[in-house]
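Field: sequence (string)
Field: structure_tokens (string)

Example rows 1 and 2, in order.
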Amino acid sequence: MTQITTADVVITSPGRNFVTLRLTTADGITGLGDATLNGRELAVASYLTDHVAPLLLGRDAHAIEDTWQYLYRGAYWRRGPVTMAAIAAVDMALWDIKAKVAGLPLYQLLGGASRTGALAYGHASGRDIPELLDSVREHLALGYRAIRVQTGIPGLDSVYGVAASSAGGGERYDYEPARRSAQGTPVRPVEEVWDTRAYLRHVPTVFEAVRSEFGPELPLLHDGHHRMTPREAAQLGKSLEPFDLFWLEDCTPAEDQAAPRYVRSQTTTPLAIGEVFNSVFDYQTLITERLIDYVRSAVTHTGGVTALKKLADFAGIYGVKTGFHGPTDISPVGHAAALHLDLAVHNFGIQEYMRHSEATLEVFRTSYRFTDDLLHPARRPVWASSSTTTPQPASCIRPPACRSTGCATGPCTTGEHGARPSVSAATDRTARLRTARSPGRATCRQRSPGLDGAGALN
């Protein structure tokens, strides 16, 4: 039995917050898991620190399914984003360890590769149509063969999901804007004015312009961000049929599984739902009644590799494909895990892929690559490694500057202002908090391959 001896929870913020679980075995093998839950990062860190880490010590690192069920069933409270993100981190780290021991990339342990690479889509957006068309051109130049299209709406100052809108403080952003507290002022969610009728009038003209400029072959996607009623979503889906969308995403609130029935009855536009889901049970009606065409969950938020593989297999029975969630609020560790699943599952559809910032990639050095218009995982047994053939010694992750959301309103979580909560599951089966050895530096238990050393999933 390969025993787990330590479990470290590392919080860092290279431009945005990330939570990473690092498990170490008695043999000195480390595994990494992404536990980032955007906007609720410290809740998952506390869940791992206080409730999960002590349970892992002494367990067999290779008993992945048993550990998953132990963590899921062992607590009275099941499911939920915090619980499932914590379980996902453990699951990813255990698969990382298993693949390292086997000396194989993870997709080989999941049945081998079903394709040579994963089709990925990028996010093109603009405040108006000319700016959007420029953004599409930029993404095509980067090698994307599928594009998500979002624009501003005439008469509205700000629209979520549109780069350079006021939701991101006026700066360009491509997904969830990472906003910082300033001088002790707490960060509050941005409230935006919305006009559904204006949106429904405008979006078909947007896709008409994009098709006119780029032709009929380019796969185009659009995200409704849960804003519409079933009737409104049906109207939009019908109006977009001439433009042959790859999918219309989250057209109605995802938690209402009955809503897509009406939408489905009125339009042939493909539907994708699920990025806010955290369990296969959230999909049960949608899949068995064939109300959607793509499942949108993230490895990080849906219980890890083990759970998402089961979801993909379940969806495949009903002809539903995968389109895993992949924004920048999922760390490169989570992206790597999704990519291995993409390569292995038979019913792969597409992978959302947003490039992380340079600051993030200084912390998480990756070896997956985006070449030949496709995403490719590393072919050697690495998860989150440097780009060199020989893994470099790891240094604990740390942010370039103190950017934690907690610094202005509570205890600093980066170490820049003193103590940072780095969790170590000690050998006496208790979890204890440790302080940083020096300001701005995370505490390392050992300088063995870790986040930027050899891994198995990247």
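Row 2 begins here:
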Amino acid sequence: MSDNLNSSEMSRLTRRKMLQGSAGLGIGMMLDRSGLAMSGGEDGPISLDLGGNMWTLHQADEQEPTRASIPGSTYTNLLAAGKIPDPFYGENNGKVQWVAEKTWLFERSFEAPPELHARQHVELVCHGLDTLATIELNGHRLGSSDNMFRTWTFEIKPHLRKGTNHLRIRFDPLTPYVQKQRTAYQQKYGVDLPHQRSWVRKGPYMWGWDWCRPLLTQGIWKKMELLGYQARIADVGVFQDHAADGPVQLEIHTALAGRAPGLSLEAQIALAGDTVATAHAEATEAETVLHAVIPQPQLWWPNGMGSQPLYTVTVQLKDAQGRRLDTATRRIGLRKIEVVPPSANLSLHLRVNGTPVFAKGADWIPADNLPTRVTPEILRWYLSKAAECNFNFIRLWGGGYYEEDELFDLCDELGLMLQFEFKFAMPAIRSRTKPG
């Protein structure tokens, strides 16, 4: 991250950009011969982004490759290559359904630098695989996926070569898999769940809805990277406790991956570039909680009720010599939101910072049926229009997919509260145990 960013530029950075800009010790960016964007430091984690246009795509029973870009899907890449018509124009939707009925292979080669091989742990981190995928590196099967919503991580150091490495990901069609699962479940439990949505963790809208036609995408729909490290910050969650007399207590839950002797964590909480609180703790467990107090908090308010000051929480992981190994950043608004149940004289409503709020808003569906085409600029356009319409509340509909951090950061900026729904819209979901 550039040291020349002013406070207004910092306030517009998304969580993803802050994380990318602060990862590792002494960030350096380079492009290797395989087209890999590499970031990392001398002692901290090293990340090699496997995205870009160095991939090929082809059907399992055909050898003619199509140049592919990642993140991307079968549909986005075939459309870019001119091999299918626009699925959203006229009657074209029916002409492209064959794509989802095929098995597809995404492949690429890359070279891993010595710095990566030197790390104790080397992982292939797939932030989004859509959906039934089998992952192979240099002919070794790493594993498989059946859920587009989660991150899949594979330890690859035993299979990583010092020369050229080859990565292949096979995406299978849904129908045969669903039929097999459905039949086995019915035979075992006597219960039939007829809709495909019941059997695959995938965006429910992709089978079609009252506002869209079906389009069952396959592909690498989020970032894919190689991650080498000895110890790193795996996740950070910030919890708030608002005291009646004003101060806000912060609990900063930090999860670590990997181990090293003498690890410690330091947290800094800043507002508009000024530090307002700090915290320190020894990192002796896989999860460590740091405690901080903001004595005179500036509270976040919904759109139309006040301003939206945002605090930056920066957590650093340090080794026994005090060298910074990794950094993670979160941006938060300080607010207390309560759901007030209905009573004899009042209906159910929200209370923010002790003040009743009349919620005004809309339902959010995916900004594009092909999620890899959604950009931060598109999200900002839609959500800015919502704020201009005096909305203060957005329902994240349960029939879409889990949105990128940019959406949540934008809602923080714009004063938009969110009703978050898990993505289980409409279908009955199978039980892992006997139905009862």
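free_text_note (row 2): Confidence is low (pLDDT under 50) at residues 1-34.
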